[in-house]
Amino acid sequence: MLKTAFKLLVLSAACSLAGLAAFLFYNRNRSLPFITAAQNALKWENKASFRTEKTPAAPEVGLQTSAAPAGPLQPCPDVPPNLQGVLRVEFSTNRSLEDVRQRLGPVLQEGGRYKPPTCVAKQKVAIIIPFRNRHEHLKHWLHFLHPILIRQQLDYGVYIINQEGDSVFNRAKLMNIGHVEALKEYDYDCFVFSDVDLIPLDDRNLYRCSDNPRHLSVAVDKFNFILPYATIFGGVSAISKEQFLKVNGFSNTFWGWGGEDDDLSQRLYFQGMSISRPDSLIGRYKMIKHGRDLHNNPNPQNVHKLKETAYNMNTDGLNSLSYTVREIKKDLLYTFITVDVQAPAG
Ligand SMILES: *[C@@H]1O[C@H](CO)[C@@H](O)[C@H](O)[C@H]1NC(C)=O
Ligand SMILES: *[C@@H]1O[C@H](CO)[C@@H](O)[C@H](O)[C@H]1NC(C)=O
Ligand SMILES: [Mn+2]
């Protein structure tokens, strides 16, 4: 009897601890102070966009290598015909870039560029990946993403923006730099900002831009396939050139981990945009497990900076961006740009 009571006590203590942990986790970083009305609006918006989107017919083939037809090319169809739907993704294989190069050599162009040979792509998409010391992840990303992007019939290029040195990391500034550097090469009209460790589990999740900025990594395994909060815009997101210019890009002043994506999310809201999303089945992702990076600790100041988004956004962003390009390396699979982001000393 006593034993049972004790067990119950332990159990209920464990439950409330777990509950508390979940509560703390959930609330820890969703205090975007400025928007409350906006958050509610976005919640509804998100509910609406969570309805199931039309799924294309089951595909048979993978990569399209067929030669261009004679005569002028027609626009690519709205729904790419060769998508596979749900994908199998695992990270246990030791991949080599050489394998990926061999497999994709016939279809890719130097710099990680591709254009569908049989139709005119709907959008010109620059994929921007902020980077430092994650070569293992990059191999997986290239292995999985290139075939997906090819099947999605995008006219695209892959830009790895590598922060030089080991000063404090600045993800948002690397994104801004990627935007500027990619535009120097090609007339991109859409930018997909992606972490290097996020792999989509469904190729119907199109790496394209829409009428509103689009958050693509809706349901990540790390967060138990649940959207952590309604305004989240981190992980993988697609934003058109116009939308990005309208908000002056990302802030350049978020050093260390956290908040830069929430700041962008607020910028979008302040400019009258809302966040669109694929449904939570198509928007599934697997994240490569890893420990915390060196010199990228959560920065407690960043959460306070979110109170100042409205005041800062017109002067802190693309129009105040300053950096130095150290090196641009062209690989078949990507353009690798090493930059000095002018990190504060210390
Ligand atoms: C993976 O491949 C690299 C390069 O070929 C090799 O150095 C490394 O030891 C391999 N790792 C495993 C776990 O097989
Ligand atoms: C909150 O957590 C999300 C998910 O990890 C992250 O993208 C965001 O930057 C965090 N925000 C802050 C203010 O730390
Ligand atoms: Mn990660």
From TrEMBL:
It catalyses: N-acetyl-D-glucosamine + UDP-alpha-D-galactose = beta-D-galactosyl-(1->4)-N-acetyl-D-glucosamine + UDP + H(+). It is found in: Golgi apparatus membrane. GO terms for cellular component: Golgi cisterna membrane; Golgi membrane. Keywords: Disulfide bond, Glycoprotein, Glycosyltransferase, Golgi apparatus, Manganese, Membrane, Metal-binding, Signal-anchor, Transferase, Transmembrane, Transmembrane helix. Residues 76-210 form the Galactosyltransferase N-terminal domain. One of its GO terms (biological process) is carbohydrate metabolic process. It is a single-pass type II membrane protein. Its main location: Golgi. Belongs to the glycosyltransferase 7 family. Responsible for the synthesis of complex-type N-linked oligosaccharides in many glycoproteins as well as the carbohydrate moieties of glycolipids. PANTHER family: BETA-1,4-GALACTOSYLTRANSFERASE, BETA-1,4-GALACTOSYLTRANSFERASE 1. This is Beta-1,4-galactosyltransferase. It comes from Fundulus heteroclitus (Killifish).
